[in-house]
Amino acid sequence: MPSQRRVVIVGAGIVGLCTAYYCRRRGFDVTVIDGRPARRDGCSFGNAGMVVPSHFVPMAAPGMVAMGLKWMWDPRSPFYIKPRLSWDLLAWGVRFWRASTRARVERAAPVLRDLHLASRALYEELAAEPGADFGFAPQGLMMLCKTPHGLAEEAAAASHARRLGVPADVLDAVGVAAREPGLAADVAGGVYYPRDCHLSPDRLMAWLERSLAAAGCRFLWETAVTGFDVADGRTARVRTASAAHVATTARVEDGPAGEAAELGDSVEADEVVLAGGIGSPAVACHLGLRLPMQAGKGYSLTLEAPRAKPAACAILTEARVAVTPMGDTLRFGGTMEMAGLDESVTPARVAGIVAAVPRYYPAFQADDFANVRPWAGLRPCPPDGMPYLGRTKWYRNVTVAAGHGMMGVSLAPVTGRVVADLLAGDRKAADATSPPPDLSLLSPDRFG
Ligand SMILES: Cc1cc2nc3c(=O)[nH]c(=O)nc-3n(C[C@H](O)[C@H](O)[C@H](O)COP(=O)(O)OP(=O)(O)OC[C@H]3O[C@@H](n4cnc5c(N)ncnc54)[C@H](O)[C@@H]3O)c2cc1C
Fold first, then answer.
1. Among 182, 228, 278, 304, which is most buried by a count of CB atoms within 10 Å?
2. Distance from first CA to last CA of the chain, Å, rounded?
3. Residue 270 contacts residue 7 (beta carbons within 8 Å)
4. Rounded to whole angstroms, how far apart are CA atoms 99 and 59?
């Protein structure tokens, strides 16, 4: 029987929208609240749009601390932590270091693999829906390696992948050229992951909003969540900074709001889902919950009329630059800059991305990017590289779906599906798209 329990989702990023989608499909009465306007930007829009079963190793992994320390001193490198006196940053660093063990990676990898694969299957279903024009392309991912040393490292990663049942083909330069005849790469070789995919994140967000509005989901825009009314271990109301305006149409360009009403400064909820991306720790704080996270700023540059395009998305591995064809355009993204909640652009980091492109793809020149405006987004990065997903034990009706770091697009559908299943009290793993039963590594309570 469909339930009409009222689910309030804080955050209209890709995780919040996918959660709304699967909750609505379960028959819940769904309201999505976001502090930004409907016509907004944010981490879920300008990203590289990759769906990556190949990315089963969390960011916190052996060797990452040493590599990070080495890169810290190069202004163009793909990784940087802005030195600052911050207890949160220090604690995050210590937790990251503690989590970067082989034993932990061995535990985390099958969990991430299963989640990514479940998400991929859900994306296939979503892409088959009417009007789902978000450019889902199951073309695989090419990890391009400039150096023999880089290729050896990626070949070792490919062996790990195959051990976990994720197909991976190690290719020499000739093999790479044969797979991507449309765009010549000057590389030692690469590893091709056929199960990976890509999509256009802006179009995905727009389609999800349209579908949700059509299905009766309410959106409260420009409505920052500022607290909760709690009684008997439950949150009964979500408090907001301003009177909440309901709009059943998702975007301004969709026409006038189908329904508009003042709700006052709070919203009643039977279930609350925290999906606020990098804003989640502050929201969780109002409930006394601790969700440690640092913002990992990344940039992307989109060429509207690229000289050439690959068929599959790619990662320029040594430079840590992602390359994704999106319709007629080609997007390049990269950098992990930890500088707090600051969305401003650091030109040297962007220059690092631009400089890497012609090294791998001689068809491009740095000048191709001269008039391209860099986009910046803040990835929500927990210290152990694993998202927070599940109910918190401290409240009977609060679920967390946040902290997806570099994998939010890839993991959003399965996250939404897991949350909807949890709220419906149903965690059966009956089919291929069902989540794995063990979510203990993702517990939102794992840091106290
Ligand atoms: C350069 C770059 C490339 C990337 N490439 C990929 C990729 O290829 N594949 C992949 O899987 N991932 C990728 N990512 C990561 C991915 O973009 C993120 O993991 C994902 O967008 C996070 O989504 P989210 O919904 O959790 O957060 P967000 O998109 O940040 O959404 C959170 C929302 O919550 C709202 N909010 C916060 N606080 C409050 C509050 N108090 N009240 C009301 N609303 C609030 C915010 O306004 C925001 O709209 C990339 C990221 C970057 C920067």
1. 278
2. 36
3. yes
4. 10
Q: What pLDDT score does 255 carry? A: 37
pLDDT tens digits for range 329-364: 999 999 999 999 999 999 999 999 999 999 999 999
| C-alpha dihedral (341, 343, 344, 345), degrees to nearest 10 | 120
| Contact criterion met (CB below 8 Å) for 49 and 324 | yes
Compute the average pLDDT of residues 103-130: 96
Name residue 447's amino acid. Answer: F
pLDDT tens for each residue of 37-46: 999 999 999 9
In the chain, count H helices and then E strands. Answer: 10, 21
Q: Choose one of 18, 240, 301, 406 to mutate for the ligand 1 pocket test, by most ligand atoms within 8 angstroms of C-beta.
A: 406
Looking at residue 85, its pLDDT comes to 87
Name, in order, each residue with C-beta under 8 angstroms of 12's C-beta and a sequence gap of 6 or more.
32, 33, 34, 36, 40, 209, 219, 221
Q: Which residues lie across from 326 on neighbouring strands?
A: 329
Question: pTM of the prediction?
Answer: 0.94
Q: How far is CA 221 from CA 31, 217, 218, 225, 313, in A?
A: 11, 13, 10, 11, 33
Residue 317 DSSP class? T
Cβ distance 301 to 369 under 8 Å? yes
Give the nearest ligand 1 atom to 15 CA. Answer: 25
Please state the rounded mean pLDDT for residues 141-150.
98
**CA gap 252, 379 in Å, rounded:** 26
Taking the centre of ligand 1 as the mean of its atom positions, its distance from the CA of residue 42, in whole angstroms, is 6
Ligand 1 atom closest to the Cα of residue 296 is 53
Question: How high is the pLDDT of residue 430?
Answer: 41
